[in-house]
Design a protein that fits this description.
By secondary structure, the protein is of the alpha/beta class. The protein contains eleven helices and 13 strands. The strands form two sheets. A seven-stranded parallel β-sheet has the order 8-7-6-9-10-11-12, sandwiched between helices. α4 packs across α6. The longest helix is centred in the C-terminal third of the chain and has 21 residues. The radius of gyration is 21 Å and the shape is globular. It starts with a strand and ends with a strand. It holds the Pfam family 2-Hacid_dh_C. It comes from Weissella sagaensis. This is D-2-hydroxyacid dehydrogenase.
Length: about 325
């Protein structure tokens, strides 16, 4: 019987995994809460397929050990796969696949949510109400149809975000290294400089790679309108956090919403109530009343979780039985 091991399984994923297993009674599906690391790799012994989801890097010694165990693939049930060293995987005859589009709408809807909260100053409103301060001073917001939304990375998720903003009457402009002109009826492609200079809200939807690290640096932030907002729904390293904090402190931009941050693996999805936060930048960002922080929950909807499980397991089975799948990377 074919055996597949899923690592880093959360409680909320178990129902979807069990449902897939019931549809495939000839496949032995095993779940573990452990991540794939040097001290856990031996758990993979005896399995034909491996599915992971984690935020911490896989150590170099794991790849040859997987090869020695007879494993032929690694599938991550996420869009991002930067925790995997693709060269090391290839050198050890491991093919890698991901789930590039588990639910573009789930992330796009959070980008819209963050934008609406920023332009209506909802963080400050909530803070004042908690303190029983019900004055209107400083709370005047903006209407979405009066704004220009800048999408950086107009792929599956960015294109979906553009559609939502366009439907609400916003003027949508976008930058992408490979413009998809099928989107021309809802947005206008411009240069990166033009998007930064003209947008009232910048929404980031790019992949994390060598060219996107610190894409939003001090120069980019200084190009934005002083009233503009930054919304990051992609990956933490796309934004230079130190530069962002300086821009916020100097009131160089209007505010920010962050669903992902550098170092998030040490604090997101942990209960840190009553504890000292382990990240200085997180501490500093939480002090601003024009900053929204959510713990990387853009993907976290019922449909997205189901799709992440189904697509990753379907691809793993396809690689095992056919040697290929639709979503190979590298």
């Amino acid at each position: 019987m074919t055996k597949i091991l899923l690592l880093s399984v959360r409680p909320d994923e178990r129902a979807a995994i069990n449902a897939w297993a019931q549809r495939h009674p000839d496949i032995d599906v095993t779940m573990s809460e452990a991540e794939l690391h040097s001290d856990t790799v031996e758990q993979v012994a005896g399995y034909d397929g491996l599915v992971i989801q984690q935020r911490s890097q896989i150590e170099a010694d794991v790849y040859p050990r997987l090869h020695a165990l007879g494993v032929k693939q690694i599938t991550t049930r996420t869009a991002g796969y930067d925790v995997i060293d693709l060269k090391a995987a290839q050198a050890n005859d491991l093919v890698v696949s991901n789930v590039p589009a588990y639910s573009p709408r789930s992330v796009a809807e959070l980008a819209l949510t963050h934008t609406m909260r920023l332009i209506r100053k909802q963080e400050l409103v909530d803070q004042r109400v908690r303190e029983q301060d019900f004055r209107w001073d400083g709370l005047q917001g903006s209407e979405i149809h009066s704004l220009t939304i800048g999408i950086i990375g107009a792929g599956r998720i960015g294109g979906t975000s553009a559609g939502l903003f366009h439907a609400l009457g916003a003027n949508v402009i976008a930058y992408d290294i490979k413009p998809n002109h099928d989107l021309d009826d809802i947005l206008t492609f411009k240069s990166l400089t033009e998007v930064l200079q003209q947008a009232d809200v910048i929404c980031l939807h790019v992949d994390l790679n060598e060219t996107s690290i610190d894409l939003i640096d001090a120069d980019a932030l200084s190009s934005m309108k002083s009233t503009a907002y930054l919304v990051n729904e992609c990956r933490g390293p796309v934004v230079d956090t130190d530069a962002l904090i300086k821009a916020l402190a100097n009131k160089r931009i209007g505010g920010a919403a962050l669903d992902t941050m550098v170092g998030e693996e040490t604090f997101f999805n942990f209960d840190l109530r009553g504890k000292v936060l382990p990240n200085e930048n997180l501490i500093r960002l939480r002090e601003f009343d024009n900053v929204i922080i959510t713990p990387h929950v853009g993907f976290y909807t019922n449909i997205a979780v189901q799709n992440m499980i189904d697509i990753s397991l379907d691809d793993t089975l396809a690689i095992i039985t056919e040697g290929n799948c639709k979503h190979l990377v590298g």
